[in-house]
Specification:
By secondary structure, the protein is of the alpha+beta class. It has one domain: Alpha-D-Glucose-1,6-Bisphosphate, Chain A, domain 4. Helices cover about 30% and strands about 30% of the residues. The chain contains three helices and six strands. The chain has a six-stranded antiparallel β-sheet with strand order 1-6-5-4-3-2. A hairpin with a 2-residue loop joins strand 3 and strand 4.
Length: about 170
């Protein structure tokens, strides 16, 4: 695990976060945008993660929380250039879209989540960071993060392992 890079736009939200982490991986790079890389990556989401999301959705619906669906529920034919701020990208809403970073968000009555997919290019390679910042709103959010936090630290590196190696 690496920390969230200070150059990442999501870093400004870390200081008062209830939960924050950043994982990174080295990958080949051909000047593709952060959104292009993210869309390719989440289409490779391991099956076991989708199974966990289904379980999560069943459990939390009993507490009045929303069913998020699956991480990779995107329109495969939709180009990254077709996405606009406010569009849904899988389980999140696109709130920032720069060439080297996207920020995706979700908010519910128990917490606010910001995900940053940030690229630090270095010639034909790049370090890619998948950063998460969570602000808990209430006791339900604390209980939720008690269970989700440790699993999150397994899921994110597993997703990053799907990036092509340089």
């Amino acid at each position: 695990m690496n920390g969230i890079p200070t150059k990442s736009s999501v870093y400004q939200y870390v200081h008062d976060a209830s939960f924050a982490d950043g994982f990174s991986s080295l990958t080949g790079y051909e000047n593709q945008s952060a959104l292009d890389m993210y869309l390719s990556l989440i289409q490779e989401t391991p099956v076991w993660i989708n199974m966990l999301m289904s379980l999560r959705n069943k459990v939390v619906s009993k507490f009045g929380l929303k069913d998020l669906g699956h991480l990779a529920e995107i329109e495969p034919s939709k180009l990254s250039s077709d996405y606009k701020i406010g569009d849904r990208v899988g389980i999140f809403i696109l709130s920032a879209n720069e060439h080297n970073e996207i920020i995706l968000e979700d908010s519910d009555k128990h917490l606010n989540v910001k995900i940053s997919f940030y690229i630090e290019p270095n010639g034909k390679t790049a370090t890619v960071y998948l950063n998460t910042v969570v602000h808990v709103k209430n006791t339900l959010g604390k209980v939720y993060m008690f269970f989700v936090g440790p699993v999150h630290k397994i899921i994110v590196p597993s997703i990053l392992k799907k990036l092509p190696r340089p």
